[in-house]
Specification:
The chain is an all-alpha fold and about 210 residues long. The protein has helices at about 20-40, 45-55, 55-65, 65-90, 95-110, 115-125, 130-155, 160-185, 190-205; strands at about 5, 125-130. Helix content is about 70%, strand content about 0%.
Amino acid sequence: MSTRIQKPRSTMRKMPSQARSRATVDAIIEAGARVLGDRGWAGFTTNMVAAVAGISIGSLYQYFPDKLSLVEAIRRRHFEEVLAVLRAATATEGTLQHGVEALVQGMIDAHRLDPELHRVLLDEVPGVEGTRSAHEAFLSDYQQHYGNFVTTYRKTANGASVEVLAQLLAGVVEGVIHNAARKGTLGLPEMRRELVRMICSYLDEPDRH
């Protein structure tokens, strides 16, 4: 289990403004994700990340003051990937079945690229006091997109509120996907099929009392 450590929020030292510096930051984050997934939190060092990225440790420290700030950037990239999936699923035109399939497959794809990295982020990387506002902003967007999804695809306005349904749907998808990522079962067609069927049958229910 990850722990929370008492430390001020660790942020990037400076933001990249030119294409070359943005490419350097992208390379550092990509290398950091690879090292974190391969070696876990205990084996994650900025020296190793710099070596994998093919840059000097000084270049890394120009942007990231320590490994916690780098992990935060890796986590933010994952947040952005998840929100992109939700936006795409909500924008999908068609039936409830198509929308749910887009949502489930998108979430699987976002976590399947490097399931070991996601396991480390979930279970090993310590939280940092001061990152709460960024995480809360993500959760706000996350719930809003699920709310949009419910509004788009639910069969009736009867029953539970959009907010409650969105919270339930987010919890189900997140729980199933994260559990599958931990167990290495994200690629199982049966898991995907049954998750789609469960969500469709719930949102397609004509009335709830």
